[in-house]
User: Fold this.
Amino acid sequence: SQQGEEDPQALSIQEGENATMNCSYKTSINNLQWYRQNSGRGLVHLILIRSNEREKHSGRLRVTLDTSKKSSSLLITASRAADTASYFCATDDQDNYGQNFVFGPGTRLSVLP
Amino acid sequence: GAGVSQSPSNKVTEKGKDVELRCDPISGHTALYWYRQSLGQGLEFLIYFQGNSAPDKSGLPSDRFSAERTGGSVSTLTIQRTQQEDSAVYLCASSSQVTSSYEQYFGPGTRLTVT
Assistant:
């Protein structure tokens, strides 16, 4: 069964607006990561949040984690055309620390100039 | 320093042929992962290596798929008797896992097309 699932599947916004993507998962985790993928090739790590953390910031990115709801959100503020990409959340399994990371299907973000 | 590299970047093969995909992780990274991504889809976990051993092979889709890692560095993913449904981008990632850092560094992928 799929561990992480992003929502929405696709998001289109104007440059300068904020973009919010959500991720839900099913089992207990140690950490949750967000990645960006351009052009269907390699992924780039954005941010990692541990299960004992509730919020984390990195530049224009803000990630929240609600372990009671098994969900996370990624907020990109003041979006730019260069933020256009697919965004994936990845979770591990609490019993398999650092091993099998499960990626969701991703959110395709389009930032229009 | 150098990132994760994969070769070839593209591979077109006929159905029934065997293919080998190679991954060179970042030097010193003990963990290595293989994923498969079909067009417009998310990543499908295939296999995980810690050093030379593979504690988790649960993602390999069939016995036509195998992987090895030698010297705790380079890894090879082999697909025997390829089928059209094997067509996908195969991504490799490595991770340090030192100081509990599980950030994965991805290679550019190998796009496999089975005709």
